[in-house]
Amino acid sequence: MSKSAIDTGILLETGTNELEILEFYINEIRKEGEEPVPNLFGINVAKVMQVIETPNLEPPESAPHPSFMGTIPLRDLILPVLDLSVWLDLDMPKTERDIVIVTEFSKSVTGFLVSGVTEIHRVGWGEVIPPSNIISSNTDAIVGLIDKGDYFVQLLDLETILTQFEPDDDREVTRSDKRYNVLVADDSATIRAMVKENLIESNFNPIITNNGDEAMRTIFGLKEKAEEEGKDITEYVNIVISDIEMPLMDGFSLTKHIKDDPVLQKLPVILYSSIITKELKHKGDSVGANIQISKPDLHTIPQIAIDLIEGGAG
Asked: Can you give the pTM of this predicted structure?
């Protein structure tokens, strides 16, 4: 399955709070002697380059992680292949029918070994149920559930997995002379912790929310509080920083709600995603986002935030 075969319709209208997901499965041996049971997952179609047959790799002894299976050539690239079942703690039997989903996001191309793919679904972020204790996985890479009637699809955040392979950076910390309040929205616990740590180190006071819906309720609650106390909204929040892909409400819809409000519209909004394409950037621009950056550049957020706040972006 090539990119051209799966990309029809991915450029959904701005503000529709929708996305398209590629549904795939990982077979799991739950009891010895019984047939494997498929576990259904989904990822954003926009991150998928193509789907290829398994290269039948044997993991090297010096693998940096148990999921690392080696590298393969593809076009003019050499890309790593990761066994996704290892991350999800599933006992997946390897067969000749397995496939590799080749993804491109966060400025990197990576292959993920799975048992197979099924179909593509268009869903609204409002249909994505936030993760809860009912999910039987030990990873926060699962960011939501999609109810398809007779089964659930678990939505994966592959960026969370790739952060485990990224080396620690000793970057110089940007510090604000003034302590600003920043509202953060992200559905990934790993990314939330990373952004929160960076902001605290830079002398910001982060207000953390788990998705766009929670962020919207929080900021409109702060607006109401400011109005009741006769204060300006900037005494409670100075800037909004949000992921784009989130359950219940995405970053585009959150930004539109903020920029359509006569009180909140002066607050600068930074959107980030692992896939800032020209088309997606256009969508962000159309809802009034001030800056859009890719997730590998999250370390630049504090300086960008300071420049936007002190530059009077609106």
From this structure: 0.76
